[in-house]
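Suppose you are handed a protein chain with no further information: no name, no annotation, nothing but its sequence. What can you learn? This example shows the usual starting point.
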Amino acid sequence: MVFDSLDTWFEKGFRIRKQRPVTIYGDKIRSGNGRRYVPVNGVKFSSGAKAKNIRAIVKRAPEVLVKITGHSSGRNTVRHHLDYISRNGAVDLENERGEIIQGRGGVSGLLDELKAAQIPNDSKRREFLHVLFSMPAGTPEQEFKKSLREFCQEEFATRQYVMALHRDTDHMHAHVCVSTRDMARANEPRLSPRKADLFRWRLGFADKLRENGIDAAASERRHRFQYRRAENPVVRQIRADNPDSPVYNARRAERLAEARIKRTKANPEGVFIGPPPRIPNVYKNLAAEIEAALASNRRPENPAQHAIEKNIQRARQGWETLAAAMEKHGDGLANEVRALLRTADRPVTSHTQELFDKAQAHRELGKGQGGEVELN
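A reasonable first move is to predict its three-dimensional structure. Written in structure tokens, the prediction is:
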């Protein structure tokens, strides 16, 4: 196969920053003049997983999302997270043994298990990590859950965890709450994933999805010649709670309103209403910046322009090497690689520059009548 000699090309050819993954290591063993660690667990990749992933990227398969959303430092704080991912007992949890935990009573029993495992109420260290796994809308639910179960059983084989599948959003996603402690070896390093580990998790989860019949890919934005970062989730949520926003989430607002009514009935004096709908400060500052640029008739600069162009050149070289190898072996996928390469020729603009161009065009169309800058 054309990828056989390029098995590690995807990572070595694309990763700009060389990072050493911080993974889970086993007992020390004697080797040569010193000691070294050997990994005792971790997600197991299928045969030719990297080649399959490259093909999935070229074919523009849906990208998997694996993200650490927070952590808990003891039973007191993990209780709140378990209530959240179980929707206060309405959503079933599944633990590392495959057991189903149902209702508030099941969550209480889980907390008792953690107490028996000597997890403190409060700790100065991270006792649990909150990990989010997500795929776009339309992903088959059962295959998604099976893939996640297989991934967790391998990657978190020696750790306690629970997983919960949520169906209250358009996209398929699940939450995993995993212990940083190793159940088998008390002196093991705690689970502390870095960027390289998260990328490996994405590769592993995408591989499990493909093995279960779901087309999925895992790549960095630079691999796809996309350099615009996603909106900050906190900012996105603030906008989603604002009825005047184009990304207003009516279903979430309805669910929060029902929960608020229940809490009000249970404790009328202790209910936290929360802030009123508002525009994020970052958007207010962005509007002021664009207004100032329009007043001076000077297009804002992109501070990341040089770094982006450098990354484009490196990624282009990697894809060119792969396309040439495919063409040599008569692989028809080479045409799709060439199509992907053509997307590298698109102009690189920042969000601020794009909004400035739109506002300027709008003002010119309106013969200079102006108006407020619209941020979408």
